[in-house]
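Reader question, answered in our methods column.
A reader sent in the components of a multi-part assembly and asked whether the whole thing could be modeled at once rather than chain by chain. We filled in our standard form and ran it. Here is what they sent:
COMPLEX SIZE: three components
ENTRIES:
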Amino acid sequence: MSRILHSSYYLHHDVVFLAKDLIGKTLCTRINSKLTCGVITETEAYAGEGDKASHAYGGRRTNRTEVMYSQGGVSYVYLCYGIHRLFNIVTNQQDVPHAILIRAIWPIEGVDEVLKRRGAAKLTNNLCVGPGKVTQALGIDLQHNNLPLNGKQIWLRDDGFKVKKADIHTGPRIGVDYAGLDAKLPYRFWTTEYELFKH
DNA sequence: CGTACGATCTGCT
DNA sequence: GCAGATCGTACGA
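And here is the structure of the entire assembly that came back:
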């Protein structure tokens, strides 16, 4: 059985819990009339105003970060290193700027289109491992910022994949050395049990 | 207005 | 292992 995640899902749990809970959920896009879906296999939580690694640290509120202050259940897409688009899920209530970066997926639908976008010949373990690769695979661009996550272009599904607790690993976030002690927080979650999602 | 830099990826060594 | 790509954002002048 498979169902779209309801908007309330994003509102009533802590962002760190959700980051872990999203492992095994399915992220779908229909962009340029192409349907592509992948099971989320790696995430990072960004815990708002108190988190030095977050764009919203210290309550920073600008054109770019404004969407993080929305009620949960919308997308936050931004440009990184001038090249890569990074896709985040905004969570929690209005004015609480929590977000979850999607760092990796295992593609399960529209795989041909994913391969085309990635410029690859076949599906390999690391085809969509890395946040820039995820957005490239799913066709997500800056114009997909601030979209509802139960909409026509982007949505999340629970396909009933059961990832065992012991198969979800935890560690510090990547590329946030500037965040001082917060760089050490165990806010990154991932699994490598791709076999669960095959066939 | 100027400028420094980043929640990265790739290809080459 | 490392350099280069590449540009919007943030912030100070």
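What stands out: Residues 111-118 of chain A form the longest helix (8 residues). The CA atoms of residues 65 and 92 of chain A lie 15 Å apart.
Send us your own complexes using the same form.
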